[in-house]
């Protein structure tokens, strides 16, 4: 079989994922070089992991997956009606995150969602892709808010109480302004549907977006869950670095997490590889670590994070297989 037929007729579609993967690996190797390939401290860290803190990390990561699953379920049911249990969304979200450590983030996430809903309820590709974008919009808004607050906290030396006040205040303002956001989107869709320059098929698809999906109630739920998701995610990173022995800068790590995650998301590299790691190196250096120490801590964190993804995803799918009796004779 010719290699061209094996990878598909359109070879170009593989170039972007391949380029992102190579770029991510190259940047990650740069972090490893910065640590002077000192794997001894990394192994020492991994051998001295606190079991209680490790279990807490896995629980928090499960909470991140659960929030993402709830968001996905809300947008799907608002547009298409009931399409599966929460556990269905939960296990495919965990799979998307795990596979996203190898392939570009959004491409992997959307592809697995399309596959899952096509298999479960025969939903169309364009419908699922549109729901994914609507879901991710609120992730981006929430992460942007937390990132801005984190930057102000780190560089403005804000008291913790004032920082929490900023989180609550900004969250309340966004929730209160959801009427304006949803109204603007609805008006924009109506204008696009009436614009004859847009192909008729696309106008029909835009017109099929239900009022339930674009409702204020759904938008508020999605934003609230997105905020909780990324606050839990920041707690995951805090626990991971605590497992690596960094106990004196936990609040700084917590508020640096949104910026690191945003770097990973915007880079679209597999698992944020490279972009996420270099952002963490910079954040740790800002808090007093030297370049080598920061790189060693990031390498340890990355290994622990990957292990956590495997453990949580494996557990979720193991429960699924047992429940469905696939391995029971």
Automatic annotation (TrEMBL):
Keywords: Cell membrane, Membrane, Transmembrane, Transmembrane helix. InterPro entries: L-PG_synthase/AglD (IPR022791). The chain crosses the membrane at residues 14-32, 53-72, 92-116, 137-155, 161-181, 230-257, 294-319. It comes from the Bacteria. One of its GO terms (cellular component) is plasma membrane. Its main location: membrane. It is a multi-pass membrane protein. It is found in: Cell membrane. PANTHER family: UPF0104 MEMBRANE PROTEIN MJ1595 (PTHR39087:SF2). This is Flippase-like domain-containing protein. It comes from Pseudodesulfovibrio alkaliphilus. The lineage of its organism: Bacteria, Pseudomonadati, Thermodesulfobacteriota, Desulfovibrionia, Desulfovibrionales.
């Amino acid at each position: 079989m010719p290699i061209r037929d094996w990878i598909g007729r359109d070879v170009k579609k593989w170039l972007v994922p391949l380029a992102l993967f190579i770029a991510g690996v190259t940047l990650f190797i740069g972090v490893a070089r910065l640590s002077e390939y000192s794997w001894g401290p990394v192994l020492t860290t991994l051998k001295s992991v606190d079991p209680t803190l490790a279990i807490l990390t896995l629980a928090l990561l499960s909470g991140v997956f659960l929030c993402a699953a709830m968001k996905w379920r809300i947008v799907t049911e608002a547009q298409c009606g009931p399409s599966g249990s929460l556990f269905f969304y939960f296990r495919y979200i965990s799979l998307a995150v795990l596979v996203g450590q190898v392939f570009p983030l959004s491409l992997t996430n959307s592809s697995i969602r399309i596959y899952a809903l096509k298999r479960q309820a025969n939903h169309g590709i364009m419908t699922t892709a549109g729901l994914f974008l609507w879901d991710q919009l609120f992730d981006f808004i929430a992460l942007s808010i937390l990132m801005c607050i984190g930057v102000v906290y780190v560089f403005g030396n804000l008291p913790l109480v004032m920082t929490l006040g900023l989180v609550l205040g900004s969250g309340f303002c966004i929730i209160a302004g959801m009427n304006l956001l949803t109204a603007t989107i609805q008006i924009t869709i109506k204008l696009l549907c009436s614009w004859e320059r847009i192909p008729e098929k696309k106008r029909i698809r835009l017109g099929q977006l239900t009022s339930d999906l674009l409702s204020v109630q759904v938008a508020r739920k999605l934003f609230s869950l997105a905020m909780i998701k990324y606050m839990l995610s920041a707690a995951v990173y805090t626990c991971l670095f605590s497992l690596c022995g960094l106990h004196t800068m936990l609040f700084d790590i917590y508020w640096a997490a949104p910026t690191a995650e945003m770097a990973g998301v915007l880079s679209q590299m597999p698992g944020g590889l490279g972009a996420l790691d270099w952002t963490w190196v910079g954040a740790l250096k800002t808090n007093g670590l030297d370049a080598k120490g920061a790189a060693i801590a990031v390498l340890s964190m990355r290994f622990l994070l990957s292990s956590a993804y495997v453990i949580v995803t494996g557990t979720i799918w193991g429960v699924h297989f047992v429940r469905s009796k696939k391995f029971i004779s």
